[in-house]
Amino acid sequence: MHRIASAVALLLAVTALAGPKGPTPKEAFEQLKKLVGTWEESKEAGGNQVIYRLTGGGTALIETQLPGTPTEMVSIYHMDGANLIMTHYCAAGNQPTMIYKPGSGKALEFEFLKGSNMKPTDMHIHAARIRILSEDTMESDWIGYSDGKEAGTVTFKLKRKA
User: Fold this and answer.
1) CB 37 within 8 A of CB 135
2) What is the per-residue pLDDT for 7?
3) pLDDT tens-digit profile, the chain (162 residues)
4) pLDDT at 15
5) At a CB cut-off of 8 Å and minimum separation 6, what does 134 contact?
6) How far is Cα 61 from Cα 55, in angstroms, rounded to an integer?
7) What is the distance between the alpha carbons of residues 162 and 144, in angstroms, rounded to a whole number?
8) How far is CA 26 from CA 61, 101, 105, 108, 157, in A?
9) What is the end-to-end Cα distance of the chain in Å, rounded?
10) What pLDDT was estimated at residue 154?
11) Would you call 22 helix, strand, or coil by DSSP?
12) What contacts 142, CB < 8 A, 6 or more positions away?
C-alpha cells in the first residue's frame, strides 16, 4: 500500500512540475480577438501590414496579410465546437486548415488538419505560431512545407499601428 501511495505522490509531483498546458481553444480565441486593428512591421523588416477584424457577430476573426498587394492573403479563425480552427487562403491558391494545439509555452500553435486545392506534396503553410508579447507587440511564424517536409519559416514581427 505504501508503494502505491508513493507512486501516486510521485505522479502528482511530476504532473505539477509539467506546469500549465497553455490556454484552452476558447481562451486562445479570446486572446486572438484582442488583436483587432492594424499591425505593421518596421520599415527595415519590409514595412508589411497585417489587419485583424471581427465578423459574424464576433464569431470569426479575419486576418489580412499584405493588404492591397498582389500577394494579399487572408486567414480566418473561428471556433468549431470545442476546437479553434484557422483556414489560410494563400496566394499560392491553396487553403490549408489548421487546428489550435494547446502547448506549454506562450505561443498559440496551429497544426495542419487538412487542405483544399492541394496535394500533400504541394508547397503550403503547414503550421503557424502566434506570440502576443504585449498589447501592442506580436510575432507570428508561418511554417511552409514542400515535398512533405519543412521548407522554411516566414516571421512577422509586428507593432500595433497608432
Assistant:
1) no
2) 42
3) 555 544 444 444 444 445 557 899 999 999 999 999 999 999 899 899 999 999 999 999 999 999 999 999 999 999 999 999 999 999 999 999 999 999 877 899 999 999 999 998 999 999 999 999 999 999 999 999 999 999 999 999 999 996
4) 42
5) none
6) 6
7) 31
8) 13, 12, 17, 12, 25
9) 64
10) 94
11) coil
12) 125, 128, 153, 154, 155, 156
Contacts of 45 (CB under 8 A, 6+ apart): 157
Residue 146: HSE in the Cβ half-sphere, 13 Å Cα cutoff: 6
Report the candidate in 11, 30, 39, 28 with the shortest Cα–Cα distance to residue 110.
28
DSSP state of 13: H
Q: How far apart are CA 61 and CA 77, in angstroms?
A: 5
Q: What are phi and psi of 51, to 5 degrees?
A: -120, 135
What pLDDT score was predicted for residue 5?
Answer: 45
Per-residue model confidence (pLDDT) at position 59 = 99
What sign does the CA torsion over 13, 15, 17, 19 have?
Answer: negative
- In the chain, where the domains are located: 22-160
Determine the topology of domain 22-160 in CATH: Lipocalin (2.40.128)
C-alpha cell at 137: 507587440
Looking at residue 122, the DSSP 8-state letter turns out to be S
Residue linked to cell 498589447:
135
Instruction: Look up residue 127 and give its three cell numbers.
Output: 503550421
